[in-house]
Amino acid sequence: MQLVLDNLDVFLVGMRTTATLTLVSFAVAMVIGVLLAACRVSPIPPLRAAGAFYVETIRNTPLTVLFLLFFFGLTKVGVLFGGFTTAVIVLGGYTGAFVGETVRSGINSVSRGQAEAARSIGLTFPQTLTIVVLPQALRTVVAPIGSLFIALIKNSSIASVIAVEELVFRTDALSNQTARGIPIFIGAVIAYLAMTIPSGFAFAALERRVAIKR
Amino acid sequence: MTAPVLADALGPRARRRVRIASFVAAGVLVVVVYVAFRRLSDKGQLEWAKWEPLTQWSVLKFLLLGLGVTVKTAAAGMAIALVLGAGLALMRLSRTAPVRWFATAWVELFRGFPLLLLIFFIFFALPKYGVTMTPFRALVLGLALYNGAMLGEIFRAGILSLDRGQSEAAYAIGLTYWQAMFLVIVPQAARRMLPAIISQMVTLLKDTSLGFIIAYEELLRRGRETGEFFANPLQTLVFVALVYIAVNFTLSRIAQTLEARQRRRYGASSVAHAGAEDLAVVSAAVEV
Questions:
Q1: Predicted confidence (pLDDT) at residue B108 exceeds the cutoff of 50
Q2: Other CB atoms within 10 Å distance of the CB of residue B93
């Protein structure tokens, strides 16, 4: 364990990159997800089709493939970003598809009467969605969104494929420099648990706070 | 697709608005697709020479054999993960507290850090201690440990989602704990869990692409090699992505069909609809 304590800064810097990557990607994913859900419940057929196409394509493609496609493929057509930005786009776009499906299931769980009441007082579709339905829908999906957040923390490790120096990348490099890997592995596991377990509690607390008691 | 929840049958004015909005939206989508194609053709990515290798049988065979390796790995990982998950779920529901604690700690541990870290550890760190594994075994072991914990949670949610009356009735006719479990509860729970299990299989199949990182000759690694050889990485990666989508889409569809059938048969109480907490568990397992 001395090895871990001696290299504590490596773990901390790695954790910081992982945390930043996760938070920024999560923000992107939430925006994409809510927009996708809005598209998929809208009365406008082209938007519904585009939303469905995006979700089905992205959800069924491995994240590793998306990373490589972006990093080795799209550079061929002049789409060039740094490693971190690429990782944010890929992770945000991937998680966004799952957020979209989750939010959509939340929207479907809001009782019809809510939307009917909103329409009967003269709200338009965008107003019905943003003022009445979405706030209730988002409250019901806090727990599954929390699961997506935790999955995102773990998925951000795949950014190491394109040399983003997050926790797995740094601990793997450290492990290669030393003759023994187990202490470093244990250190990395503890570092991840230190992020995933509190996130779980935070979302559980948030859920209790915003849950609609019926 | 059911009727949209948020709009009734539309009146004439709303229908006109929807029509206009549809035209605008379709126009924007067409422009986006056009710009993308323009970009691709300007950079010479649509030239036939770049796509032609993907029509050669030798290249296709190389990639399809990679798909075979991917499927084989996923099947092996899934088989072990199912057994592990079943064991963990039974242990978490055990009446002996230490057994429960152990299984809970195990599940929380293996769900709490990335699969990639586990694979790196098994493949790169363990050999330093004299434990050497082929990439196939390392990948299968990693997939099984990780997904075993995920499936354990799915199984537990499935068993708990069953009405208590089932186990109470089983005990009332004199069955023991294990008889009640295997004759009454597991057969019913298994049927309910099937959609969630198949979704987890999709996740597992996608995760086999992590084998790319340890130079395992599965579909993605072979796609990358093909792309380097013919200098057409974009085209081969698109092809590889389409293969993954075809396989996973089929599996997802099977899961959806089963789920819809169960909702018809048992009301809205398959695992995926068992309530917020179970929903969280299932979606945690479904997403990776």
A1: yes
A2: 17
How far is it, in rounded angstroms, from Cα B61 to Cα B82?
A: 31
Average pLDDT over residues A65-77: 88
pLDDT exceeds cutoff 90 at B276: no
How far is residue A35's CA from residue A16's CA, in Å, rounded to a whole number?
29
Question: Two tokens at B40?
Answer: 């691709």
User: Is residue A38 within 8 Å of A129, Cβ to Cβ?
Assistant: yes
Do residues B276 and B282 make contact, with C-beta atoms less than 8 angstroms apart?
Answer: no
What's the CA gap between B217 and B66, in Å, rounded? 6
What CA–CA distance (Å, rounded) separates A146 from A151?
Answer: 9
A45 reaches B (C-beta below 8 A): yes
Which tokens hold the place of A135?
Answer: 């706030």
Where in chain A are the domains? 17-166
CATH match for B50-286 among 1.10.4100.10, 1.10.1530.10, 1.10.3720.10, 3.40.710.10: 1.10.3720.10
For B288, the closest of A133, A151, A180 (CB atoms) is: A151
| Among the partner residues A41, A119, A168, nearest to B4 by beta-carbon distance | A41
Give CB contacts under 8 A, 24+ apart, made by A25-28.
A25/A87, A25/A88, A25/A91, A25/A92, A25/A95, A25/A152, A25/A156, A26/A92, A26/A95, A26/A149, A26/A152, A27/A92, A28/A88, A28/A89, A28/A91, A28/A92, A28/A93, A28/A96
Number of Cβ within 10 Å of residue B98's Cβ equals 8
Residues 178-197 of A with CB under 8 A from B: 179-182, 184-185, 188-189, 192-193, 196-197
The CATH number given to A17-166 is 1.10.3720.10
Tell me if A68 and B109 make a contact (CB, 8 A cut-off). Answer: no
pLDDT band at B239 (very low <50, low <70, confident <90, very high): very high
What sections of chain B are H helices per DSSP?
A: 12-42, 48-51, 57-92, 97-111, 115-120, 135-160, 164-172, 177-179, 186-207, 219-229, 233-266, 276-286
CB contacts under 8 A, A 2-21 vs B, are: none
- What is the residue type of B188? Q
Q: How would you label B37-59 residue by residue, b for 16+ Cβ within 10 Å and e otherwise? A: eeebeeeebeeeebbebbeeeeb
Q: Which of A43, A168, A180 sits opposite B117 (nearest CB)?
A: A168
What pLDDT score does A130 carry? 92
> How does DSSP classify residue A60?
T
ipTM of the complex, rounded to two decimals: 0.90
In the chain, the amino acid numbered B2 is T
